[in-house]
Amino acid sequence: MRDEILLNLQNPGQLEKLYRANKPTFKTVFNSLYPQLQNNPVAESWYHRLNYGQDESVWGTRNDRIVVVGASLLAALLAKLPTLLSLDKEFFYTRNIGFIVFPILMAYFGWKNNLSRLTGLWLAGLILIAIGFINALPQTNTSDTLILACIHLPLWLWSLLGFTFGGGRLTGGINWLGFLRYNGELAVMIALLLITGGLTTGLTIGLFKLIGWNIEQTYFEYVVVCGLAAVPMVATFITQSQPALVSRVSPVIANLFSPVALVMLVVYLVATVVSGKDPYHDREFLLLFNALLIGVMALIFFSVAEATPASKSPVQLLILFLLSAVTILVNGIALSAVLFRIAEWGVTPNRIAVLGANLLMITHLVYVAFRLLGAVTRRTDLSLVGQSMTLFLPIYSLWTGIVTFLFPLLFGFK
Fold first, then answer.
1. What is the phi-psi region of residue 170: left when phi exceeds 0, alpha when psi lies from -120 to 50, beta otherwise?
2. pTM score
3. Which of 39, 44, 119, 226 is disulfide-compatible with 76, CB 3.0–4.6 A?
4. Where exactly are the transmembrane stretches of this chain (predicted)?
């Protein structure tokens, strides 16, 4: 973004687009450039605009902090509902884990983006319908559709969070690429908070053991559970109020792990052939194959979301293209294995759900790889790669909604 700001300094419209596409990063980069631009009247104007009231908003405004503390306490309260209301913990957490996190984050971004009251009511209505539906499904240990609904419901809620993050507008487009970037930065910050929390937990329990107090059960039941529920909200607040903390770390992680993932994936495919593992008849191995596929796709998405023309060299783009090409091969194997199992043993909810997801992913990956190839050969702009990443996100949202709400009905809750 540094080069883009310098290039468009005399183009107010383009500079405004850069700012609206990623406000926190724009502010961080612009402030680092400002000392060499002080004699430029446009730069002076932008500096005062970006830093008006800066002292007050270093860690957000007072209202921001109040909202975050309140939201964190609410998340902790929701996480402790099974204890407070004597509910079955397995029943509650398997069906409602997504409602502890996503509605609170949606409310936060809705407040920050001044979401209209009508849009807020629609979102609240959808969430309430989802709560009623998932908790009304029959409780059976052999229901594949129940398991699928519990897995896909958080993904559907995640897509609603993306809608809220983008301002809740159906017209004018949603900043899905900014949402993907936020998710990458959020993952980094959550990891840091969990590492810090884990060290604190170990130190605290160890110190109390020295004086003869065993506080493990109480500590985990209250402090750890409540802390885990609050981590996404706290991490979100940090990424939004202190973007410089993660804006430089995230691209480094993406650039570091992309070549590692490429080598690992190639070695894994070779090892699979040598070991004689068969995803066509081994169900657990097929599940592992799909989990690997989702993880590598997430890394590709994260890397592209963090990319800018200044931050991605041709070698890095080539690595991403090769990674996407190998991932397409993995996806093709998984897709053929699912089709084989359907042809041999018939249709089941699990097979149809995996088939739909694999078809979506391989189509998406082919399109992304095509755009990456264009960026590598300099035939197309890198921005088109970002657009290719976000094009399918609403379709993923639709599919997760179908699996969550329609599959139990279509397959008779089996």
1. alpha
2. 0.81
3. 226
4. 66-85, 92-111, 117-134, 146-166, 186-208, 220-240, 252-273, 285-305, 317-340, 352-373, 393-413
